[in-house]
Amino acid sequence: MTSGPITSRKLISGRSVRWDDARAAKAYADGAWIHETLTDSLRRIVQSDPRRLLLIDGARRIDAQTLSERSEALAQALLARFPQGGVVSFMLPNWHEAAVIYMAATLAGMVVNPILPSLRERELAFILGDLGSRVVFIPASFRQHDYAAMLSRVCAELADPPEVVVLRGAAGNHQSYDALFDDPVERRLLPVVHADAVRMILYTSGTTGGAKGVLHTHNTLHALIQQIGAHWLVEPGDKFLIPSPIGHVGGSIYAFECPLLLSTTAVLMDQWNAADAIRLLEHEGCTHLAGATPFLQQLLTAAEAAATRLPSLKLFVCGGASVPPSLIRAAAAYFERAVVTRVYGSTEVPVTTVGATRRSEAELAAATDGRPGIADVKLVDAQGERQDAGEILARGPQMLVGYVHAEDEADSFDVDGYFRTGDLGRWVEDDYLVVTGRAKDLIIRNGENISPKEIEDLLIGHPNVGEVAIIGLPDARTGERACAVIVIKNSRAPTVDELRIFLRDLGFATFKCPEQVAYWDELPKNAAGKVLKQQIRAAFSTGSK
Q: Which CATH class is domain 443-542?
């Protein structure tokens, strides 16, 4: 896409977004953006094929008619309680009710905010407070964690707490999800929703410790789904197995958008287990699966143990962390029918590269992160000049339309509207991107972004931590693990378990806690006092520490 620089913001349905008239016009002309929303797609399906299967959640099978009826009833309940344009948060596992909530919020002209169930008090309080969420949907409990009790604590800290709605269990002093459908409300006329209005807000870890709310519209998500349909071997009737959390942009689009826009069925997994995934893939005849490196590693091991080559699987898309080429080659060789490929993207510019999905591209699928799809990608040097290797910048019709706080955008875009990913890359054969590292200080564990500064800012408060640097180290199981390099205070070395307990007591998510600790006499610094993390990483890679 070509255009001049971003010159303005635009107020659409009450939210200020980044806007470029020329690029918007091109997106519409190309068909990437349309003057419809997902609700229009659902209505058409209900009229033409009301029993089309959209979602499978264990024994529950949700067709188009059921989704339409349930989501419209919930939309009426939302409109009776909250203003149009308000934020509807949900912190749910991969359950079918999330699709009802997602569609209901859209029907009601509200904005959805998926939140990872693995987050805890500290992160949750920040997100709900930052957005001013009007309602948050949670499980009563999941993986032995009491969400209802956690939300009681979080809401007590917020000046304007949201209403809490509890699914699949006792609501306590909160609102029951099922009761929302039973309470009589006066039916209201559903609003007309602008396709360029903000549809979804997702929070992603920043490199300076502050989580940022990423704004996506109905149209940016539509463009993303059109790209998937064009490049990922998708046919009507295909089934996506979805273990990736719906709190991520990936899990959410496969579960909520693809069934309506690409005529697929979403098969939900609320907890990843490779053996269970094998059974679901075979029983349901799943054709597509996307996930981070550990998903593919474990799936391959489980398939070999079960002596199955998963004949229904057409495509495995692997990304989210460092992906070993040897793993892609091994999986592609074993899953004989499937194309297995690396891809690259972010919450801000999802699916920046679409992989290499042609049979003739098998080696490029393993050795590179694939070709850009609808994204315009450039590599630049420190002066912003195009090079064959450098920082990866990207823009396209599927990119974010800004952050919740415009000030977070100051260094995020160049003058031509390209998003600065902070990642480094190089071109192969002029058309295939290889991500070579990160300029930004970010750890990716099991596909989850972890901000080192966020951990450092908390651990420095530990009574036995004098200085601390968090770095990412390669991990065969999770892609990367967080290692805390500590200068001890008070002559006592805190253990990994002690650090984890300390962080948990502060309401910090378990998956972000360090898994390794090292004790150094001092941390290397430059003349300005900045910790030189590259030297720390180098010491680990050479074995000198």
A: alpha beta
May I ask the CATH class of domain 221-395+421-438?
Answer: alpha beta
Mean pLDDT, range 433-447, rounded to an integer: 84
pTM score above 0.85:
yes
Q: Where are the beta strands (DSSP E) in 235-329?
A: 239-242, 265-268, 288-291, 315-318
Q: Give the least confident one: 7-21, 199-213, 295-309.
A: 199-213
CATH for 37-204, options being 3.40.50.2300, 3.40.50.980, 1.20.1560.10, 3.40.1000.10:
3.40.50.980
Strands 265-268 and 53-57: parallel
- Give the pLDDT mean for 405-433: 93
Average pLDDT (389-405) is 96
| Alpha carbon of residue 464 to chain centroid | 35
**Cβ–Cβ under 8 Å, residues 107 and 77:** no
Alpha helix segments (H runs only) across 158-216: 177-182
Q: Are 39 and 99 in contact (CB under 8 A)?
A: no
How open is the CA angle 419-424-426, to the nearest 5 degrees? 110
- Mark out the alpha helices in 133-273 (DSSP H runs): 147-157, 177-182, 218-231, 249-252, 258-261
Residue-range domain boundaries for the chain = 37-204, 221-395+421-438, 443-542
* pLDDT tens per residue across span 248-262: 999 999 999 999 999
